[in-house]
User: What shape does this take?
Amino acid sequence: MIDRGASEPVFAARGLTKTYHVGDVDVHALRDVDLDLWPGEFVVLLGPSGSGKSTLLNILGGLDVPTSGTVRSLGHDLSSMTDAQLTMFRRAHVGFVFQFYNLIPSLTALENVSLVTEISPMPMRPEEALELVGLADRMDHFPAQLSGGEQQRVAIARAIAKRPSILLCDEPTGALDATTGVVVLAAIERVASELNATTAIITHNAAIAAMAGRVLRMSGGRLASEQVHEHRAPASEITW
Amino acid sequence: MRPAALTRKLLRDVRQRLGQALAIAVVLAAGVATFVMSLSMLDSLGATLEAYYARSRFAHVFASLERAPGAIADRLNDIDGVSVVQERIVQGVLLDMPGLETPALARVVSLPESPTEGLNLVHVRQGRWPAPAMPNPEVLVSEKFAHEHSLRPGSSISAILNGRLQILRVSGLALSPEYIYLIAPGSVLPENERFGVLWMPHLDAQAAFDMRGAFNDVVVRLAPGAHERDVIDQVDRVLDPYGSLGAFGREDQPSHQFVDNELRELRGMAVFVPVIFLVVAAFLMHVVFGRFVTAQRQQAATLKALGYPTRAVAGHYVAFALTIAVAGAALGVGLGAWMGRGMTALYAEYFNFPHFGYRLRSSIAVVAVAVGLLASLVGVLPALRGILRLPPAEAMRPPSPPTYRAGPLTHPRLRRLWARLLGPGSRMVARSMRHRPLKTALTLLTLALATAILVVAHTTMDAVDFMIETTFHHAQRYDLDVALHDHADIRARAEVAALPGVRAVDAYRAVPVRIPHANERTVVRALQSDDGLLRMLDIDGRPVRLPTGPGVVVASSLAQRLGAVPGDTLRVEVLTGRRAAIDLPIAGLTIDASGTAIYARLEDFTQAIGEPNTLGGLYIQCEPGQRSQVAARLRESPGVAAVNDKASTLRSFQETVARSMGIVQGVIALLAGAIAVGVVYNTASVSLAERTRDLATMRVIGFTRREVALVQLGELVLLLLTSLPMGLLLGVGLSYAVHRGTQSDLFRMPFILQSGTLAWSALGVLAAGLACATVVAARMQTMDHMDALKAMD
Ligand SMILES: Nc1ncnc2c1ncn2[C@@H]1O[C@H](COP(=O)(O)OP(=O)(O)O)[C@@H](O)[C@H]1O
Ligand SMILES: [Mg+2]
Assistant: This one.
């Protein structure tokens, strides 16, 4: 499924560092990270809180820029792009799923998805995206009328409706119980394979790692280890 | 590009904050409406007046004299810059009106043969043009006077013409640009009941006043580009030998002067009030929008993360603000046009214009909307900076609690004690106010502005009340003001004093003068007693006395205009008798409603003008209940030209100046009330929205509804109470600015501040606050606190 030899990596990060200045203190969120992600790959990023997972994902997704180092993606050098160029990159290629869903409370499920389809070059229909996550019957509900799991599935539909080549999820099950979490993970797994999107999921829940093709562990701002799975477990088999 | 989903979000955000959005829109509308109303009304009234003057060929230069042969008019015609000269006969007469205890004063003005001839064309409103009909002449009667006395075409009036009682027949009712306001000679106020104008055919007037082949009044219309000043000088040169009182231009023509002053007062309001309102609207926009944007940080970051460019996100929020602003501005223009038309109609009726047209120039509407939108944008832009700088990665982070600091009490034991005193709710309020000092300051300022506007609305009314009080009660202690024929001998005073019912009598002489270097015309009022029935008062209401020497007391506004101070000497030219030029040392200043008079000692002044021991009038104080009898008796006495009842003057003042100011004040007070409610409501609901989660948490951990509500209302009360002193102070400052801006030449008022004003304004804002607090408290009762927590998980 993943052919590392024949194609270019979707992401090629070299020497990434990110330093935050908080008062007089420098916080080194990332220290010299090298990383390649390949087309269609399903990666899980594990690591304790504060280890730099979100920072790395934000930089890959063009939400943030590194202090030093380079990121190449789909022919672009993200580290040297302007804010407007990064916006266009996100709009065209990246789907985000956030831990806190970040739905617009004044828009219905369908409208939250339309928010993305209306500005993307080749979107699917918003209804289609919601069907993919199993929410065809909740399209006209407002976020406040949906459970946490349903809200997260709307967020996933919103992320994939643009047919992104990259799907980035930051603790998508962090605010959910196990049963609901599994439903959400299954939704991610399904849309990722249907779109053949390069997918990265951040979690500190090791059980989730079983569904990954590759598991990256972070600690103290560095990539500590890498583990490749020959067989990926389907989301439905995961428990915690 | 405006994606449909964003538009929908926009509309829903507006709808969800409908209360707040409406409150802002109303405040903005109030600002725009006052702007549109005042400017369009001024514009319409100005245009109406101009059109009226042009259509009726209103004269530019006026002069009255004793008597000149008709041929002299031709010499006036030859003056450079004169286009039309109309010589007339104008004569004061007494009318015996049923229902009036003392004769009314009227002025007979002679008319050309046809209504389209000559200048100051008289507009017949009812009836027809009078035809020569001696010995019972036909006259047109000024409409207001006719209405006061129920005169109609066909009615008759008994008048004393040249000492003979004669019956005049009313042929019609009329208006004239020369008498938009009917102001009796020597008076500064219109008195519709006691003073009228009778227009009589020229032939009849000549016969009635023994003026065949002669005239005693002339009006002149200038050629385009002529110099008024030069023409006046030339006219004076020609007419001087014929007892002219000096020619003057429109600015000294009593009716025009009065109209002009009214318009000037309106103009002051037109500038100040909308500016205040728009500033408040901008503040409100800033506060509400700022808090809205803060609450939407997460959403804005999400939009950015999803690939919306910063510009689009910022544009979305600007569109939110503009939606409210446009709605407010449109409402304001509509409201302003409606009020403007109403006010114009009211003033047109009040000014007695025969025709009036209301127009709202599109430029006024456009500027009003632009100013309204600009005010909103000025309020909104600072908050937008936050959106522009917001990193999209913010969307990936959980909302972090804002950082609060503990108060200045660092010692733990002190802090615990303080905490026990305050309770946790009060501490929440205190910290959140301290946490964002700028926001808190802005909220305070906005609330203060609401108070300030009420103070402004109030003080202008106070000034009118004060003026009535000082002028009509403290300064004028007489009941009747009697004008005597010719220059009566000083003994006339004793005769009147001996009449039954008369308690006190003071003699005076009012002499018209000109102040050559400033080209001012005014009156020297020479008083027999400087602490008698007419007193001069200083700004604090204390009596001002005349010096024992030759000095005079001058109205402070006149002194200000002349740039003169006590110690200076004023040179005046007397316009009657021997026309002496005399120097008057200024000994003191007085406030004066008319703002133009000079007060002198009767003995000294009559001596100085070479007419020693003469009088022109008497101030009379009557025994209680004897006023009408005394007036009736005086009316019959041959030496009396007019008897003026102070009570009727006061009434006419209240009907004119006080009424027109009252209308404006009423409108302002109404709008100020709207602002006060708008501001307080917004403050209350914004802070409620901001603290929903905190309050919900308090409920979850066991606080009662009441305790939670007290925290919220406590903040509102604290803000209101803190803002009040600021607001009162600001109000006083703004009132002073308005006071300065609306000063007119005719009515100068001291700046008056009454404690009642401050109390009422404070109460007004507190009442608005209480009403809003009730609404907010009611909303809190229905709020499901568990829901508020769930929405975020
Ligand atoms: N905006 C920021 N400002 C300052 N420090 C930050 C910021 N974002 C992250 N950090 C710090 O960088 C480190 C890595 O954070 P993060 O990437 O969020 O870790 P993780 O997602 O693995 O929990 C942490 O120490 C965190 O405190
Ligand atoms: Mg994280």
About this structure: The pocket of magnesium ion (ligand 2) is lined by residues A 53-54, 170 (CB under 6 Å). Chain B touches chain A through 34 residues (CB under 8 Å). The longest strand of chain B covers residues 502-515.
